[in-house]
Write a structure and sequence with these properties.
The chain starts with a strand and ends in a 14-residue tail after the last strand. A four-stranded antiparallel beta sheet has the order 2-3-1-6, with helices on one face. It has a two-stranded antiparallel ribbon with strand order 4-5. Strands 7-8 form a two-stranded antiparallel sheet. With 150 residues, it is an alpha+beta fold. Strand 4 and strand 5 form a beta hairpin. The protein has two helices and eight strands, in the order E-H-E-E-H-E-E-E-E-E.
């Protein structure tokens, strides 16, 4: 089992972290992951100690301790891939935030463009003043309009 050490100062070296943890037991491994593109430190580390008792005492004692002026976040590291995936819904990249999948771009069918109250007047049709329906362009639409979705 290993220990996750977060909120590390970027100037912290492996020796600094080993020195910090060695007062609670033997440090068997210390890893400071680097960014793939730039090769810079990512601001966290993983520390492995010789036994679980030493790990538990180090986690308890060093939680919130300062290293080079920054308070450390220390807890037991979870195995890689065990953290739940975060799905924020929607998406949409740079296009105004998506919409949670309510409307699919390029879908064939009818689109209801309602501007009224939604209830038809007594004795009137459902598509009265202020309401229109138009055919949305799709792959099988031969209307000649390419449009943004066609």
């Amino acid at each position: 089992m290993s220990i996750f050490v977060g909120n590390l100062p970027f100037r912290a070296e492996q020796e600094d972290i080993i020195e910090l943890f060695s007062t609670y037991g033997e440090v068997t491994n210390c890893a400071l992951p680097l960014e793939r593109d730039t090769g810079r430190k990512r601001g966290f580390a993983f520390v492995e100690m010789s036994d679980e008792a030493a790990e538990a005492s180090a986690i308890e004692a060093l939680q919130g301790a300062e290293l080079m002026g920054r308070p450390l976040r220390i807890n037991k590291a979870e195995p890689r891939g065990s953290a739940p995936r975060r799905d924020f819904g929607g998406g949409g990249g740079n296009y105004g935030g998506g919409g949670g999948g309510e409307r699919r771009s390029g879908a064939s069918g009818w689109e209801d463009r309602s501007y009224g109250s939604g209830a038809p007047p007594a004795g009137g049709s459902a598509y009265d003043d202020g309401r229109t329906r138009r055919r949305r362009g799709g792959a099988n639409d031969n209307s000649g309009y390419g449009g943004a979705e066609g």
